[in-house]
Amino acid sequence: MFDSPLSASAYEVLQVAADVSDDDLRRAYRLRLRQTHPDTGGDAALFVQVQRAWERIGTSEARAAYDRGHGFAADAAQYAPEPSDAGGTGWRPRARATDTRPRARSFGQPGGWRRERYLTLMREWVGRGAELPDPYDPALVRSAPRELKRLLADALAEEATARIVADLGMGYTVWHDIAADPRDATLTLDHIVLGPSGLYAVLSGDFGGPVRLRRSELIGEGVAGSPIADLAAAARVVARGARVKFSGAIVVLPDDDVAAAVEEIGRVRGLAVAVIARSTLSTVLRRGLSGARDIGGNELFDIRTRLQQSVRFL
């Protein structure tokens, strides 16, 4: 919340301009609390957003830091990709200087095709021949059409998942940005994760705000289509092509956008599915989903070989 290219800014949640005075900001906060309080007919999710917006900009120090990081000040932070010290064809996040542990095996470029598409569309939107010194400047991103912001938000979400999975260790293998069926551009998987706890299809989502579940599908203001059904369908196509069986599917969302840290929703198209907060991803992948069968020894090696031979990247 507030950090996503898709989400409303703290100022927008409080319905004030970015240059509002401190006194007017405080008055706006109190008004929004009354308007959104559940006891007076307001929306509970929006009520929480109002409180978190105030936490971000309610004091001079917090407001200055927020402005720097979200494009309301001159030295704003960036949405640009982090530098990598990887070698070869696999993706790796930048290693910490004090961390010498082996990383998970990684193949593909998380968020890569979305960033490439974002850059192409951003240049077209700004205008051919127009100067574009920084396509990731937060102020520019905030003013861009939603289609562009969604591409960037999804790329950032995939990269966040990739960093977490990389730290699981050498017992895990992960493939990023998979074309489930090269003939159908709509069938894709953000990640496939193979480890001792099972084989999982993973969707890294960011819809710019809170989501909830209804009839085994995600709903919310920013949700379009049927993300869970599409994830299960893509996993089935990959499973048939590689002659493997997925243990389950996992939807990873920003912590602030889910009501429960881990919510296992049963089976969708025969596949166990869970919707989880990003901070729990490492724990869930180490533990596995309920009822999922552990994979080890020669079987793990065999599944990895089959996927290596069949996976095609976007």
From TrEMBL:
<dbReference type="InterPro" id="IPR001623">
    <property type="entry name" value="DnaJ_domain"/>
</dbReference>
<feature type="region of interest" description="Disordered">
    <location>
        <begin position="79"/>
        <end position="109"/>
    </location>
</feature>
<feature type="domain" description="J">
    <location>
        <begin position="9"/>
        <end position="70"/>
    </location>
</feature>
<dbReference type="InterPro" id="IPR052276">
    <property type="entry name" value="Diphthamide-biosynth_chaperone"/>
</dbReference>
<protein>
    <recommendedName>
        <fullName>J domain-containing protein</fullName>
    </recommendedName>
</protein>
<dbReference type="Pfam" id="PF00226">
    <property type="entry name" value="DnaJ"/>
</dbReference>
<dbReference type="InterPro" id="IPR036869">
    <property type="entry name" value="J_dom_sf"/>
</dbReference>
